[in-house]
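Sequence in, structure out. First:
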Amino acid sequence: MAHKSKNKKQHTSSLDSDTQRSGVDSKQKIGNKQYVAELFKLQVELVKLQDWVKATNARIVIVFEGRDAAGKGGMIKRIVERVSPRIFRVVALPSPTERQKTQLHAQRYVEQLPAGGEVVIFDRSWYNRAGVEYVMGFCTAEDYREFLRDCPAFEAFLVNQGIILLKYWLEVSEKVQHKRFLARISDPSKRWKLSPMDLESHRRWYDYSRARDEMLAATDTRAAPWYVVPSDDKKRARLNCIAHVLSSIPHEEVPYTPPKLPPRQKAKGYVEPKQEHRTIPQLW
């Protein structure tokens, strides 16, 4: 098993409660104008990172975990908003099939790992075994213990193979999660985000708290440390996390030579045919 991260003691000492973890403090919220400007700067840097990944055949895995309504989806959306989906690939696997349930636990996740020149972002990952599967009884206690024992070795193997692995836990407070769940109930555009599992996770807050604590304690290693992202303030969480991703990957800006647009070809007698086609209604 890999050695524990030197920073772990420092992490745990500053995270004495769910409220402290989630970043509830006296800081003023970031104004939308400032947020949009700062986010754009970071997204430009993500494009530069993309160029470096493509040029060097780097392989990067970014894992996002956290309670329901912690903000994982919104975080990932801002990361991939201005980059190529052929390089930045998001993986959000559904529940395993009956066949997959008989495979090695990590098998269906290994299939999604990046080839050279790819960044794979896991919206939940193999850590389902330490979270929802364990809390909801979808795996045995032995399966759970084996996962906590073997996961550090699995991740050390990925890192030793040259994969850059970043793991983020988005921490939302009990109060803010409750507020976001209520918003999902009342907002027709968000109802799809509230599943029966989400409702159960709301009820079993402390079961998930204990599972989180055990998971972080067992899998925060020198080779693959966890980074906690306080996420009660979504805008601040996104800016801080994207900045951390960029600073954690030792990339360089690839020189860019602006291309010169070639002139249009000559029409050479081409005339637009007089055909009628169906056009969508122009409502705006």
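Second:
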Amino acid sequence: MIERYNRQVRYHQFGEHGQSQLQKTHVMIMGAGALGSHSAEMLVRMGVGSLTIIDMDIVELSNLHRQALYDELDAEKMLPKVEALKHKLNQINSNVEVTIINREITNLNIENLLTTYHPHIVIDGMDQFKIRYLINESCNKQNIPWIYGAAVGSKGTVYGIDDQGPCLKCLLETMPSTGESCAINGVLPPVIYQVASMQVSELMRWVSGEAFSKKLITIDCFNMQYKSMDISALKQSDCNVCEKHEYALLNDKYDAKIEKQCGDMFLLRFNADIFNHTDYLPVTIKKSNDFVKLLAYGSHEITLFKDGRMNIYGVENEGEAKNIYRTIAKSLS
């Protein structure tokens, strides 16, 4: 088996010890989009022990320019990303155990996911700051190291976080209320590859016993800029998370039924029963499978997931989203 990985084993700072530790490591990847899918592919090719991958979305054509391993057939079938990804990963390396969870990550379930699956380390493949702050709190609480990664436009950022800090809360005390997104600002594929590669590089340091670099890495693939900055001094002695161990987001058990997403999309949450009762809804079913249904509601397109989540596109404001939610809820009563 070691022959399969001998090119990376020959690198002396990683070596046989690093490979041995990698093959004992259980990595949880939160998000199977651009960063998550590339990280998963690299780790499986390198011979990681096991992967648990969590994601709630399906493959769409707009994903294919930057998200690894997915293809047009996956998009045509509206396959969940985790299902499509596991199939491809198993073809690359059948020796790696890949567990998939087709589920939204929220403040209500993230702790249970960590305590149920017991990863040694977490890789961030998410695209929203709220989820990253949840990862920061839950990993700190469970004493699990994690690797932050973000990419939008031509720019990317990577930072490995352990119990010594500084944590994400130290770096960004206030969660950004607005921010750039791929849906609005676009993203260039090379920065995705670079950020995912640096996330996996931090993981390689960690498994080989070198620990995280403790550097905030920033990349601009279009302007050909790369910066690596030691941010140990940014550790906050009174940080609510890594010093006081106060977990405001984890302790907030409010379950939002209507949530603004990127662009003109709103996420509505219903009970899972709605998936089997679409005949009662004022919609037209355009396409469906066991995981998702593509619906039309007036001029709006809707993606309805098996767990009751509903993405509605073309919604201008929260007031319109609330009206749609009330109309659909009333049709079910």
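Remark: The radius of gyration is 20 Å.
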